[in-house]
Amino acid sequence: MKRLSLPLLTFGLFGFLIFLQGWWMAGLRVRLQDAEWYSGWVLITGVVFLVAFQLRKKLSVLPFGRLALWTRIHIFVGVTSGFLFLCHINFHWPNGFLDRILFSIFVLTFISGVIGWFFSRLVPKQLAGVHLVVVSEDIPFKIAQIKEQAHGRLLEAIEKTRSDSLLSFYDRRLEPFLSQPNFFWFRSRRPSRYLADLAKECHEIRRYLNTEEHQTLDYFLDLARQKDDLDYLFSGDRILKTWLIVHLPLSYILILLALFHLLTILLFRSGGGFG
Amino acid sequence: MKRIRRSNHPYQCGNDAGAHPCRMGPQGSNCGRFQCVPNQTNGVWQCTRPAQLGGPCEVGPSHEGACGQKPCHPKLTMLGLRRRVTLWSVLFVLFGFLFFGTSSKGRQMLDPGPRHLVHQTIDECDACHRQDLGSIFDPFNLSPMEQDNDISMSEKCMACHNKGPNAILAHGSDYSNYNQKGDFGREHPAGFRRANAAQIACERCHREHNGVNGTLTTLNDQQCQGCHQSYISAFELDHPAFGETYGLGPTSRIAFDHQNHYTKHFPEKLVEEVDCTYCHQAGQPSFMPGFNRCVECHRGDVNGEQSAGIKGFLFLSVPGVDLEALEAFRPVFGEWPEFADSDWSPFFQYLMQGSQYKGKNSLDLKSVDWFDLSTTSTSTRQLAAEALREFKIAIYEWSVSGDLFLAQALPQLGSGFQSRERSPFPSPSPADLKELVQAWFPNLSAEYPQLIEGKPVQWLGVTSKSEGAATDPAKQNGSDVIEVLSSEDDLLLDEGDDLLGDLEEDLLEDSLLEGDSLEGDLLEGDLDVEPEGKRQNETSNVRANEDKAAWGGWFRENYDLYYRPSGHEDDFMRFWIERSSAHQSTDEMLGVIKSRFSKETVGKCLKCHQLDKGQIHAWSQPGSEPELTHFDHVPHLLVEGDCRSCHPFRKSDENGEARLSSFEPLKRQDCVRCHSQEKRSSNCQLCHDYHRGWVSPPSTGDLNWKP
Predict the structure, then answer these.
(1) Which residue of A240, B130, B242, B324 could cross-link B246, Cys pair, CB 3.0 to 4.6 Å?
(2) How far off is chain A from B692, nearest CA to CA, in Å?
(3) DSSP-H helix ranges across B421-568
């Protein structure tokens, strides 16, 4: 019940805020007041606040409130500003060059933000299912260590068994897999399809191997599982960081364009805008 | 060796993907791996890495003495990549601002979109926008409310689209007294919610830069109801009922009996032609047929061909007077034509009693029997004599000053008329007036000084008995003539009966019939005045009689000046009806119009153009405000097919309103048959306009407007 009530409360609050904006804008238009002017000021304030979130993250030592609260407000303001923006442009595709760029940047920023919000809600929960504690910067290093362990065990096995049965398997399947972190778009289930195929192939070649080689093959499979877990962590970490590479530059561009837009409005005062 | 993690660094070690990254990580964008300067001892190169950094490395120096530690190429972390992308993006945008701001493309970049087709000729932004750099540096001066009330752009709009002094008020009208039944005197069915005097800038509704073919208006039903307090959920449900005369439209100004015409006068035509469209055709304003159909039957009514009497309007006349009764007061008014036998013309009655002469003479000209003053009191006769004197003064001044005299005497009709401008009055020319006055009152120019000063006037019949009159040299000269004429009078009146016999009667009758003032020649001794036939020069606009004015214009009959209309919409007729309609408070003038333009007289103006509730329903009503509704007949005719489906004949005229229209007024239910939410559009603006009349096209004088 508690698990269900929180999303309901969240979406209910979003709905209420959006309704409030729509009611406010409709009221302004009905009274033949300058709805674009008022909503524009609210929007520019909102955008400045959204960008200030990044500043808050940089200045974590200053007592500006908890980051979690900032994040929550950032999401609320960001999502609701999307509807206000549509009201601001009166649900019309703008006609001006600068206005169209501003519109596009806002939409891209909004979409990237929503996607990031979605990932930041989903990915950490998924990653928590991997019982492996690794700092994200160490993942390539850990994978390199796994590869080194596999390589050492292979040499050891060849020396003991005087057989190259595992060598072809290692060269063909294991070595490429262990060479570098593999990025997967977010997946909901583990292990990866590659690991499953690898395990299947291990099962098929097992009949051609002796007991010593069986142990080595099991060891390889265990290392592959570790590598797959690291890939999973690596992919999640990469997703959580990649959307920011899109979202943050767009945010800075957006605030620049918005300020320039405000400047032109102040310069030309009344008139213009979207129909 | 424990590795130092630097997750907030933009670079990471280039060997991180290997199993042996360096411990310290990169220094900025450079590899942080410590490289020592190997020391050669006994011919062998030794690593000199200090113990704090791990001591001598495993690789050791090369044979040539170079450090064995190979520097890596640090790689960007995700943080570094993000920073780099952000930096380049911001720089790109700033460069874009700089590039467009300094190039000719800058203005295109700022342009919020193409202007509407009708505004394509406007090139400069400041033609409409107020480019105020000061406002940028003074943002606190730009409170939202100020912006909302900013009408500076509206003023620029009105430089071209002049909608009057109240243009930025609701509906272009001052409704401040509306609810108090002020200027309008009636309650509006929808009332007002917001402040009536609130200014509404043009751009609240007229949004530009929406494309060449974009809409310039965005008003919707909800916005109408933002001000109007009576909530109308749907036209068919709670829209107020129409007015009692709605649907009668401009036809109510014309008294046209549709029923009689339809059933009696031209039923054959209606059968042969196409019903109502015989007269009412698309393309005509409000389907009004004009006079083109009426003239087929009524031409003779207008130009007087079918008139039994004189075919013209009596504009000016020398009234007939009981001169015997006024004999004692002759010095007051001087000579007067003995054979004048007309009534006072209504126009001159108005001129003398309804204008600047008002108050000078308390005598009601209409209350006196001018042909028999013998029974009136002496004071009445005195006033009558004064009225005759004022009449003579008026026509003399008129003949001298021309229409400037009328403009001064009737300022409410000749508003703003100055002598140098073209006269607004359709009246005889000064030359024609002089001729008339000379013919009617040959000695008026000599009498005028005495008349205007109120001194006794010598007249040609009896010498004034007032003292000093004969001492005037001019009068002395005249006395000789008087004596001669007196003897002539004796001849004609006392002894001439026998001498002239029937000949005298013939002479007099001929002169009367031909409109010639023979009595002026014979009886009043003005020998300088030539006979009518000679006086009537080629340039005179006053014809000798009505037959000579068959095509319209001025003509005289004896002591009367008439005007005969040339046809419908005659300038003379238009002027007096329009001006009278514009000045509805001028009751006397209204009386003139009523009496002169009635359906019994020539022209029969008031047979169709109605007098109602003290005003004339002329073809146009100067000063009246256009309505806030419009109606397009054409699409309705395409659907309905028959006019009478909406305009049935009025069943009864018990209350007399049938005089204004032959049809039943349109009711809301008639429209609801088609216009409802389920069937067709029923939004406010389908019938209602925000602006009264249409927005005038730009005048090129006030702005650099290029056609």
Answers:
(1) B242
(2) 18
(3) 430-440, 444-453, 473-489, 496-500, 502-513, 518-522, 532-535
d(CA B614, CA B588): 11
Helix (H) or strand (E) holding A265, with range, is helix A211-268
d(CA B445, CA B46): 145
Nearest to B90 among A97, A140, A252 (CB): A252
Q: What is the mean pLDDT of residues A44-59?
A: 88
My answer on whether A252 and A206 are in the same domain is no
Q: Do residue A124 and residue A142 come from a single domain?
A: no
Tens digit of each residue's pLDDT (9 = 90 or more) over A176-198 = 888 888 877 766 566 778 888 88
User: Is pLDDT larger for residue A105 or for residue B109?
Assistant: A105
How many A/B residue pairs have CB atoms within 8 Å? 160
Contacts of A144 in chain B (CB under 8 A): 17-19
Is the predicted pLDDT of residue B631 greater than 90, yes or no?
A: no
Q: Kindly give, in sequence order, each residue whose CB lies less than 8 Å from that of residue B258, ignoring residues fewer than 6 positions away.
A: B649, B662, B663
Read off the pLDDT band of A83 (50, 70, 90).
very high
d(CA A221, CA A198): 8
A275 in any annotated domain: no
Judging by DSSP bridges, how do beta strands B75-76 and B11-12 pair with one another? antiparallel
The verdict on A223 and A152 lying in the same domain is: yes
Specify if A273 maps to a domain: no
Contact B78 A238 (CB under 8 A): yes
Q: Does the distance separating the beta carbons of B205 and A269 come in below 8 Å?
A: no
> Using the beta-carbon criterion (under 8 Å), do B111 and A96 form an inter-chain contact?
yes
**Which ipTM score applies to this complex?**
0.87
Residue B609 lies in a domain: yes
Asked if A29 and B223 come within 8 Å (Cβ–Cβ), the reply is: yes
Looking at residue B642, its pLDDT comes to 76
3-state secondary structure of A192: coil
Show the domain range for A98. Answer: 2-129+243-268
Residues A219 and A255 in one domain: no
Whether residue B549 has pLDDT greater than 80 = no
Per-residue model confidence as pLDDT tens digits over B352-407: 765 555 555 667 777 788 888 888 888 888 888 888 888 888 888 888 887 778 77
Cβ count within 10 A of residue B640: 14
Q: Which domain holds residue B557?
A: 313-563
Chain B residues near residue A235 by CB distance under 8 angstroms? none
Residue A140 sits in the same domain as residue A228? yes
Take residue A25 and report the two structure tokens written for it.
């804008």
Domain identity same for B581 and B647 = yes
Query: Does A207 share its domain with A80?
Result: no
Q: Using a CB-CB distance cutoff of 8 angstroms, which residues of chain A are in contact with residue B125? A: 268
**A266 contacts on B by Cβ (under 8 Å):** 135-136, 139, 142
Whole-structure pTM value: 0.61
Q: Which among B71, B94, B110 is the end of a domain? A: B110
